Amino acid sequence: MAEPARLGAAAAQPSPLDALPRIAARGAPAPADFAALVAAETPVVIKGLFDDWVALAAGRHSPGRLNAYLAGMDRGAAVPVMEAPARAAGRFAYRADMREFTFTKRSAPLRETLARIEGLIGQENVPTVAIQMLPLADALPEFVRQNPMPLLPADVGPKLWLGGSVKTQTHNDRDHNLACVIAGRRRFTLFPPDQVANLYIGPLDNPPPLSLVDPENPDYDRFPRFREALAAARVAILEPGDAIFIPKYWWHHVASLDPYNAMVNYWWGDTARGIEKPNDIFLAALLALKDLPPGERAYWRAMFDAHVFGDPDSASGHIPAALRGTLGAMRPDERAALRQRLLSAFQK
How far does the chain reach from its first CA to its final CA, in angstroms? Predict the structure, then answer.
């Protein structure tokens, strides 16, 4: 048996984020219990969920063992690779002008990329290279067969993240996220969705929108409200074999704490289509409402508070249920009629 490969470079130094309150941890749930966790919309660390994975055993052994395991299933497809220069110190974030990022994106062969990532371990003043968001069902279908996830439907495919000591700037997802660490350690720093104004998020038209604040070394003169975000933050430090559930829209900063790290994640839950996609409706609201006069904006704020975000019984309980229409619990035919009405309006 081959000896475990030495990681060489020392693990990440302690961070002020390590002192934040910890996200609660629990053992592996049954599918019904996991559904309840998702419905609760609260982050949780899950231990022992995928102890029988072949990939986890390889990752716990050494980078070389996991790389060989993955390369043995390679079918020749190119993989998505992100690379940041040494001066970025592993931070995948914006450049100073916020028009570009500190990293580049390209496609490259899997075996070549794995070898390069392993070759950089322990070296100083080198770029940070990572395979990001590789769809395993397409690229390495045998991985999916050998490493199943019984908590999720079969059509929720896993994605692989593997590379050096990456620090991914604070962002969020429109899906729920189940992230499973198979090599190295990762620190997840989470902020509730309502902290968006305190995170100083960058432009929406350069996706994904990222926070401008370095949470490990915040510039409070430039970003004073970040203190409030940090007061609401929670942290989890995951070892190989640990998973974390992150509900959709929770902001998260992810730091790979060792010179070699690998994680598999699952995204699901963004099922809305067409006119019912919340993000598109948000963008439509920016177009329609943002530049209105103050009085008109106040009217629409009150309408949204009362009929979209407020208690429906308080806002429209005085109307007989049969007459509430779009203000009540819409039947499928009423939803379809409203959808068609909006589609017709938006085409004018």
Answer: 69
**In which domain, by residue range, is 23 found?**
16-268
Choose one of 209, 236, 268: the last residue of a domain: 268
Between CA 167 and CA 112 the distance in angstroms is 23
Whether residue 156 contacts residue 268, with contact meaning beta carbons closer than 8 Å, is answered with: yes
Residue the block writes with tokens 């229409």: 325
Could you report the per-residue pLDDT of 177-222, keeping only the tens digit for each? Answer: 999 999 999 999 999 999 999 999 999 888 889 999 999 999 999 9
Residue 235: strand, helix, or coil: strand
With tokens 């309150």, the residue in question is 21
Tallying the residues shown for the chain, one arrives at: 348
Determine the Cα–Cα distance for residues 325 and 323; give it in Å rounded to an integer: 6
- Rounded to whole angstroms, what are the CA distances from 65 to 5, 17, 36, 74, 109? 8, 31, 36, 15, 18
Residues paired with residue 178 on neighbouring β-strands, in sequence order:
245, 266
- The pTM of this model reads 0.93
| pLDDT digits 0-9 by tens, 296-314 | 999 999 999 999 999 999 9
- CB-CB neighbours of 196 under 10 Å: 16
Check whether the bond before 208 is cis (ω within 30° of 0): yes
Q: In the block, which residue shows the tokens 């604040």?
A: 213
Contact between 166 and 130 (Cβ < 8 Å): yes
CA separation for the pair 100, 105 (Å, rounded) = 11
Shared domain check, 222 and 124: yes
Q: Is residue 3 domain-resident? A: no
Distance CA 187, CA 170 (A): 12
The CA distance from 74 to 76, in Å, is 6
Residues in Cβ contact with 102 at an 8 Å cutoff, skipping those fewer than 6 apart = 84, 85, 88, 91, 92, 93, 94, 95
Strand ranges (E), 4-157: 25-27, 44-47, 78-84, 91-92, 104-109, 128-135
